[in-house]
Amino acid sequence: MQPSLAQHVEIFSAPWVLPISAPALTEGAVAVAGGRILAVGPRAELLASYRGAPEERCQALLMPGLVNGHCHLELSHFGDIPAPAPGEPLTTWISRLLARRGAGEGDGREILARAIKALREQGRAGTVLVADIGNTLHEELWRPDPGLPEVLPLLELLAPTRPAVAAALERLAGLDDALAAAAHAPYSTAAEVLCAVKARCRRLGQVFSVHCAESREEVDFIGGRGGPFEDFLRQRGAWDGTLDFSGRGHLGSAAYLHALGLFDGGTLLVHGVHLSTEELGLVAATGSHLCLCPGSNQALGVGRAPLPEMLAAGLLPALGTDSRASNPSLDLWREMRLLAIDHPRVEPSLVLAMATLGGALALGRDMDYGSLAPGRVAMMLAVDSPELARCQSAEAVCAALVNGGQPPLVCRIGSGRGDGQVHNSAGEYAA
């Protein structure tokens, strides 16, 4: 290596390096230049290859930043909406949320301030990319900020009636191409709008995100059996037959979306709690993606996603937090821990991959985030804890990360997007 080039290279090393896309390294290192990763490998080899490059030694381990595949930041000021009681349908919670929003709770400044606070908390915990799904435009929230995670904005459209369909299509036609559109759910968005949003996403190379199979009541509704969702739409005056599935029901929400031709590598189905084995086969065969939200699902009592079956189908789901309206925390470490509790036989390394590479793949950003590999953004996490310091194997390291919740020390390093300071899990600065 030429000395002039080595002067622009930094080496970050640690007792453990977890590339995620490759086996864990003991005494590993990452070479960085210009905000991107140059190489990942044994520490001794990289120090020899980049002689003269300064080395920053990390105490426990290096890993990629976390990716939040599904979040509603604009709902961050709704942290006290009661969840459905046992036996109550999901529509009970939806009605409470809409009542609060309809009452105009929180002005624009407060909503934005709470959203930025929520985003900053995620950044301090090691999240580097957040898919933010919202019904309104928040350009200030989405503007790049070196002290915050990158935000991938998705403007969500709903259309349960013919007038709503016309309004949604008009809004879709007027969107700037730089902003991605999303559809809310098959129980709230007419097929015409679902297809129009997906067509636009395909044309622009953007991710098509949609809630899917979150509750049993949703599956019954799409299956043509009416139930709480039909009652909910009728009570809100949002029923004119546009979403009447009686006589033409489908075997599941994903089966319905697949029948509309919406599945491909750019499709992201969120929640997926009540997907059948056959539907998982459709998701896998089309290269579509899943995002699980265990904290929200637990809080709302809608059930647990069939993760072992998803993995058996060859899928690597992403992880998301959903919103503060349905989840007491937007901490992806907590999501990993909850998922591990629900599925103790799933290898911790797979859960860790979901929170990093799974999210990057689902959002079409795996060439930037999700793994430590050449060409990726050099926004890494240096993580330390007493338990990690005692680990003697890669399996133990992954188990400690997944089962322990947010580590006491998480530091974003290696890229100009980070704030350059070390944070502990309480959000305070550490030495």
Q: Can you give me a brief rundown of this structure?
A:
This protein is α/β, with parallel strands linked by helices. It has 2 domains: 3-65 and 370-424, Urease, subunit C, domain 1 (Roll); 66-362, TIM Barrel (Alpha-Beta Barrel).
Shape: globular
CATH architecture of the largest domain: Alpha-Beta Barrel
The major β-sheet equals: 8 strands, mixed
Give the number of domains: 2
The pLDDT mean sits at 92
Description:
The protein has helices at residues 3-6, 43-49, 90-102, 108-124, 139-142, 162-174, 191-204, 216-222, 228-235, 253-259, 277-286, 294-300, 307-312, 332-342, 348-362, 386-390, 394-403; strands spanning 10-17, 25-33, 36-42, 55-57, 61-64, 66-71, 127-134, 150-157, 180-183, 208-212, 267-271, 289-292, 318-319, 380-384, 409-413, 422-424. It has 431 residues and is an alpha/beta fold. Strands 1, 2, 3, 4, 5, 14, 15 and 16 form an 8-stranded mixed β-sheet that branches. The chain has a 4-stranded parallel β-sheet with strand order 6-7-8-9. A 4-stranded parallel β-sheet has the order 10-11-12-13. The chain starts with a helix and ends in a 7-residue tail after the last strand. The relative contact order is 0.16. Residues 416-431 have low confidence and may be disordered.
Question: Topology, pairings included?
Answer:
Blueprint: H1 3-6, E1 10-17, E2 25-33, E3 36-42, H2 43-49, E4 55-57, E5 61-64, E6 66-71, H3 90-102, H4 108-124, E7 127-134, H5 139-142, E8 150-157, H6 162-174, E9 180-183, H7 191-204, E10 208-212, H8 216-222, H9 228-235, H10 253-259, E11 267-271, H11 277-286, E12 289-292, H12 294-300, H13 307-312, E13 318-319, H14 332-342, H15 348-362, E14 380-384, H16 386-390, H17 394-403, E15 409-413, E16 422-424
Parallel strand pairs: 1-4, 1-5, 6-7, 7-8, 8-9, 10-11, 11-12, 12-13
Antiparallel strand pairs: 1-2, 2-3, 5-14, 14-15, 15-16
